[in-house]
Amino acid sequence: MNDLALGGEETPHRVSASMAVHGRFFVVTCFGLVFLNCLTFLYHFTGSSVFNVLSNSISLLLISWSAYHVLVTREGGAFYKILLMLACIFTGTSYLVNFGAFELSDGLKLLSIYSFYVAGRTTPERLHRSEKRCIYALAALPLLFKVVGQTKVYTGIEYPDVFSYFPNTNTAALYFSALFFAVSPWFGNKVLIAQFVNAAIMNRVGPALATIVAIGLWSFFPLRPQVFVALFLLAIASLAAYALGALDRLITGLNAIALIWSLDPSTIARMSTKQLIDLTGTTDMSAFFRITHWTNIWQIYSSLGLGGILFGYGASQTGVLTVLPLPPHNDYLRVLAEYGLLNCVIFVVFVFSIMFSLKERAAKTMYTVLLIYFLSENLIDNFTSMTLFFSYAGRFTSPKWSPAE
């Protein structure tokens, strides 16, 4: 059994030590995340930046812990290690091309996704009970804060949708989705019910729609005769709904979006909410602002030279360069524009190859929710959620993975 990529044959003592390190990866990671979230709790409860510095330090230690496993083991899959290496090269080149306009912490967050996944594949053991307790603790901490505290960090009119110590309910919904994904081998399809409860409590349409689409997608595959019958009935139902006018509201919304798309982003930025409502006939502004922002991002990115196209305009620079001072609210577009085409190709290949490697339906569905949610939010920024999703995805796709008893 060769677990250390140090060359030569291993002694029994070395093999035993290596296996011990492998077996501790998830336990240490989960305890680290609990400690990190306790510090986050205290940071928002007190407003003291000391706790923020300490929580960031824990994040760096956990990234180093995952990197250690990547470097010293032969497990993890050569394909994914190659993707990690290419991501490091392209992100490093993006940093050099955009020197002085590149947030290193954002680049590290992106690379850590690959690192946690590869490290997770090195641990084939079943889930430990201590991990389960840690996940319960991670679920309890924000709920406890909701009861006893009020954030002293996310304040003011720019944070109208705070939940516990999360900046908004989208971030909170993602956090609990990551917890459900991690425990999916224990609870199976029950986590999908919990996900709908999660979306209802957070009052977010996005997670609910993403869950419905994900469930529908993996109900269709593998293709069976019943699937084609269902698609035929769905087509008939859609035509009937259109004839009866049930889709008028959807069509009106799409027309309004097309109108917004045709306008210059700077024009939209100067318009008041009332003017936008009068123009489009709807009060749902979130989709319009996203589309306007995406259009502006694409205009900037597509106007770059070859170097910019390949390596982007720099991590975290979207809010600086665009008319609206906001991050992209689309992680695929974010990686493309801020890190470049080469990084985007690697990222897309990476995240979608994982989806097709997951075997258990509940885990595959919850992971697909994440990929859909990437289209409308800034999820890469959420360290705990990304750590849980990708480290456990690594474990669940490991050739040696054995589900919990």
In terms of quaternary structure, the protein is single chain
Distance between the termini: 25 Å
Characterize the largest beta sheet: strand count, sense, and whether it forms a barrel.
Answer: none
The share of residues in extended strands comes to under 5%
What sort of overall outline do the alpha carbons produce when their principal axes are compared? Answer: globular
User: What percent of the residues sit in helical stretches (DSSP H or I)?
Assistant: over 70%
Order of helices and strands: HHHHHHHHHHHHHHHHHHHHH
Overall pLDDT: 83
Structural class: mainly alpha
Radius of gyration: 23 Å
> How many separate helices?
21
Poorly predicted ranges: 1-20
How many structural units, i.e. domains?
1
Q: What's the count of strands?
A: 0
Topology:
Layout: H1 12-23, H2 25-46, H3 49-72, H4 78-97, H5 104-121, H6 129-148, H7 169-182, H8 184-187, H9 190-202, H10 205-220, H11 225-243, H12 248-262, H13 265-270, H14 273-280, H15 286-302, H16 306-311, H17 318-321, H18 331-339, H19 341-357, H20 361-373, H21 383-396
Helix pairs in contact: 2-3, 2-6, 2-21, 3-5, 4-5, 4-19, 5-21, 7-9, 7-20, 7-21, 9-10, 10-20, 15-18, 18-19, 19-20
Transmembrane segments: 25-45, 51-71, 83-102, 172-189, 201-221, 227-247, 298-316, 336-358, 370-393
Keywords: Ligase, Membrane, Transmembrane, Transmembrane helix
GO molecular function: ligase activity
